[in-house]
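Appendix B, record 7
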Amino acid sequence: MKSLIISILRNNYFRNKGVLFWNFAFPMLLYLILVSIFGDISSHMNLRIGVVGESKTLKGVFEKLPSGIEIVDTKDPEKDLKYGKIDVCIVMPENFGSLFTRALLLSRTKLSMPVKVIVVYAPERQESSILANVVANILESLDLQIRKKKEIEVEYRSKERKDINYPHYVFPAILLVGVMSVGLFTVPYQLALYREQGILKRLFASPLKGHHYLISTAVCGLLAMSITSLAVTLFAKILFGVPGLSLSFLTGTAFSFFTFLSISFLMVSLFKSFSALNAVSQIFNQVFMFMGGFYFDVSNVPWPLKALVVGNPATYLVDYLRGSLGYETIYTHHFAVPFIWIVVSLTLFSLSWRQVIMVE
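Structure tokens (predicted):
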């Protein structure tokens, strides 16, 4: 079996120029392109809404805004806004809770008395003006009356915000692009082509067993994933100074290997012809990347697109790897959905592996 593994690696991975490019060169080329275009752009908004007063209800409303908008308490809104610590501030009156409850109960009666609040913003800063309008519209939709928009002059100092390092942030996504290139294309294509071209028939005419070939194919896929991941990691570390990888990052990477390798066997078991497999591989790849949050936040997309996000194994894998690098994670139970994909994929494949591997 050792000779078979060496033969598969040599003929299907290292002698095939297309495979060499897509598995090993393309992830690093994509890395360079993304960093050159978006390297100076923060991947998340980092806006802050200051609040004066206490209201769990109101804070709960604003916490449902897109990720990147933070709600913070402030005691001196004008000073914090002036020096860029916040972008907009909501000043609530005393006893806001009781006033708001009364406003809701009487909202459709002649006794309606909207609660009056103040929105403080800095007109010189575009993001502050835009956010102030958003906040005002939300407050008015809650039957809260905007008493006035108070303008504050700002001093143009560097804003106190935690910007991300884009080359570091996108690194896990590029690593998974390389892993998916092997798992969604090279491994299933090899099995489908060998079956259609009759190569498997000739192989199984020899003393070679079907499960020996299957194990050898899986080992070669894992080795190829390891090589492309190592190449991307060294590339990122040398050019962009990506920090040393932790045990949790390596664990997540290894789990990603098995996830996408399992999916490769699932695709081969469901789609018999190479043409169908080729089309499905492209669809899987695009959905996993763009609905997995590789390049932009997809946590707030509407249904039914949300189903492609929450049921996507890549969503949790890339989020876990970013968390291992110190970034705030969006999801929890990162291994649950990928594990379900592994179990379902291997179960379906085990039920039909003879028809998949053996020539009909």
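Remarks on this record: The radius of gyration is 27 Å. Residues 153-162 have pLDDT under 50 and may be disordered.
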